[in-house]
Write a structure and sequence with these properties.
This protein is an alpha+beta fold. Helices cover about 30% and strands about 35% of the residues. The protein has a four-stranded antiparallel β-sheet.
């Protein structure tokens, strides 16, 4: 299996639990979707494609969760709890 190069609009995000896991987020303008892929070391173990509407819902959920975490004063404790 070959790995598609990360598009210009993309990012690698490390897992808070350990350095061997990561989430790759990449926007594919040619397919009008965002691809979320879960990685373990150099192996992709799962992918999810989201269209623009679903991607916007994901961003909203993340924003609401961050706002709630900050309001509760618990920012930074989530990573420690999931370790």
């Amino acid at each position: 299996m070959s790995v598609v190069p990360l598009p210009t609009r993309g990012e690698w995000l490390g897992d808070a639990r350990d350095g061997s896991r990561a989430l790759r987020v990449s926007w594919h303008t040619d397919r009008d979707c965002v691809v979320l892929s879960s990685w373990r070391e150099d192996t992709c173990v799962a992918t999810v494609r989201l269209g623009p509407t679903e991607a916007a819902r994901l961003v909203a959920v993340l924003g609401e969760g961050i706002a709630a975490s900050l309001a509760a004063g618990s920012a930074g404790t989530v990573a420690a709890e999931t370790a």
